[in-house]
Amino acid sequence: MWLYLAALLGLYFLCRWYRERQSVEGLPEKYQLDVRGLRVLAACLTQQGAEQLRKATSQRLIAAATAWVKEQVGDKGLWGLVNNAGIAIPAAPNEWLTKDDFVKVLDVNLIGPIEVTLSVLPLVKRARGRVVNVASIMGRLSFFGGGYCPSKYGVEAFSDSLRREMLPFGVKVCVIEPGYFSTTITNPQIIIENFTRLWERLPEETKASYGESYLNDCEYAAPRGFVGLLGEGGAIPVA
User: How far is CA 214 from CA 50, 97, 175, 206, 223, in A?
Assistant: First the structure.
């Protein structure tokens, strides 16, 4: 009996290992929906647009965007929604942070996608489409403090519950868990500046408990630790 279970467990991990080693070649050429004749409604096409959205995100903005989407898709509904919002800073040991630091990240990474999804869900149901939520590998394992990891855990949980609820309506809910990509989130200089800014506002008692060497170690590790894990050129740049 135990030998049988051990064999099944070994087979499971072998299959999982094989599956996770698979890679897709030619990613930049994959699924270019716009050039294949599909209508793609981009909420954010430029970096400037992204910054404006981050500063102006509100229920009114989401309502206006939903009305615009309804006008574009008409009675056909919306076949797909992709939620790809993501900021990571402020990030540091949790003791260094305030409630507002957490809320800033959670609003963008978790509450925003939830609000957008609920707003256009009737359109997705009409088309029997799908919702794609971009989470993170850090939605499974917390590497650092701050709102980023909790927000991605939340995206996973929201997606799991929504998936079960939408099944009777023929709507699929998918989660993508990206690994390490070269974006501003993984920029070593931005991470170091974030650590320094948060350190400088700490009470002297808290600074003393960590010691100046702690900050120096963080600044040293930023370009060499997780951020530099894959080495020079190891991360896939994202335009």
Answer: 34, 16, 36, 12, 15
- Fold that domain 49-179 belongs to in CATH: Rossmann fold (3.40.50)
148 assigned to active site: yes
- The residues near 95 (Cβ < 8 Å, ≥ 6 apart) are 145, 206
Tell me how far the alpha carbon of residue 58 is from its chain's centroid. Answer: 19
Strands 172-176, 181-182: pairing kind: unpaired
Report the candidate in 56, 71, 168, 40 with the shortest Cα–Cα distance to residue 107.
56
Task: Return the SS3 of 211.
Answer: coil
C-alpha of 47 from chain center: 17
pLDDT tens-place string over residues 21-72: 766 666 566 566 655 555 555 565 444 555 555 555 566 666 777 776 776 7
Summarize the confidence of residues 142-148 as an average pLDDT: 87
3-state secondary structure of 174: strand
Integer Cα distance of 126 and 130 in angstroms: 11
Q: Would you kindly state where each structural domain of the chain is located, as residue ranges?
A: 49-179
- Asked if 128 and 80 touch (Cβ cutoff 8 Å), the reply is no
d(CA 132, CA 134): 7
Q: How far apart are CA 239 and CA 232, in angstroms?
A: 18
Please tell me what DSSP assigns to residue 224: T
> Of the residues 4, 18, 31, 148, which is catalytic?
148
pTM of structure: 0.72
E strand spans, the chain: 80-83, 130-134, 172-176, 181-182, 236-237
